[in-house]
Design brief:
Blueprint (H helix, E strand, L loop, with lengths): L2 H5 L2 E14 L2 E7 L14 E6 L27 E11 L4 E7 L6 H8 L5 E8 L10 E6 L4 H10 L5 E8 L14 E7 L10 H6 L9 E8 H15 L6 E7 L9
Parallel strand pairs: 7-8, 7-10, 8-9, 10-11
Antiparallel strand pairs: 1-2, 1-6, 2-5, 3-4, 3-6, 4-5
């Protein structure tokens, strides 16, 4: 994304209205009111960057915030956060649900989700999207881990029931599964890490290589750890032969051992 493109994205100031634990490692945070009266999602995988204050501080930005201002801010005033899928949007109430994967104190988003409370002020930078299937697509491959599964859920809800859809989701175990809408031609495979650290396995690639992808006009979408999706993307492009516009793999996060990790 260019600097000019970033400058066109808005910052919405809103507040947290509800926090709910929805799984052993997932927290649903509902934001509502304020500038969200003007928010409009882009598509089923709409995502935003949450801008939260550092622990013990108040939010030091307003709706004029742009990333060009970040380096000029005092260290303690700089917001922290991460990208999250808008799992649900209720325009009549100007409310959005965001689902955050928690993993202790590793990552600003996880730390924020474990301390956030209703009435806390928060900024939302967005919206953005990646999902853009070419015209004529008649088969879908959706892959992800805990961070991408809620975007997968939203995409499934938006797809016509008669289409063929293959879904592969890597999670730690059965307790981390979430409800997914399934049509008559939807196949869902839950692949378990069974205690192996997230972002360290080849689980997604292993499962994708077991699929017969020889038929249909396929669109492949993925949201998971960056290195895992790079391997899937290379397989789909180089081995299966899918064109570039039919493969959208987005690294939602990076494991510490992944090159270029920050």
């Amino acid at each position: 994304m260019t600097i000019d493109e970033r400058a066109l994205i808005r910052t919405f100031i809103t507040e947290v209205v509800a926090v709910r634990q929805i799984g052993p490692h997932m927290v649903q945070v509902t934001c509502g009111g304020g500038d969200l009266a003007d928010f409009e999602p882009l598509g089923p995988d709409t995502f935003v960057y949450v801008l939260a204050p550092k622990p013990g501080r108040t939010l030091a930005i307003d709706h004029t915030f742009a990333w060009s201002m970040y380096d000029e801010m005092a260290e303690g005033d700089r917001p922290v956060g991460a990208y999250y899928t808008v799992r649900a949007w209720r325009p009549e109430r100007c409310e959005m649900d965001l689902v955050i994967v928690t993993h202790g104190d590793e990552g600003e988003g996880s730390r924020w989700a474990q301390r956030v409370r209703p009435c806390d002020q928060v900024g939302v930078w967005g919206p953005r999207q990646v999902y853009d299937p070419p015209v004529g697509t008649n088969r879908y491959l959706l892959v992800g881990d805990e961070t991408g599964v809620h975007a997968i859920a939203a995409i499934l809800e938006a797809l016509p029931a008669e289409l063929r859809v293959d879904v592969i989701v890597e999670v730690d175990g059965p307790a981390d599964q979430v409800p997914l809408e399934q049509g008559p031609h939807t196949s869902v495979r839950w692949a378990y890490r069974n205690g192996q650290p997230a972002g360290t396995t080849t689980t997604l690639l292993n499962e994708v290589t077991q699929l017969d992808l020889a038929s249909g006009l396929i669109y492949a979408w993925g949201g998971a750890e960056s290195r895992a999706l790079t391997a899937v993307r290379r397989y789909l492009r180089d081995q299966v032969g899918l064109p570039q516009e039919s493969v959208a793999m987005t690294g939602y996060w990076r494991h510490a051992s992944t090159p270029d990790h920050r």
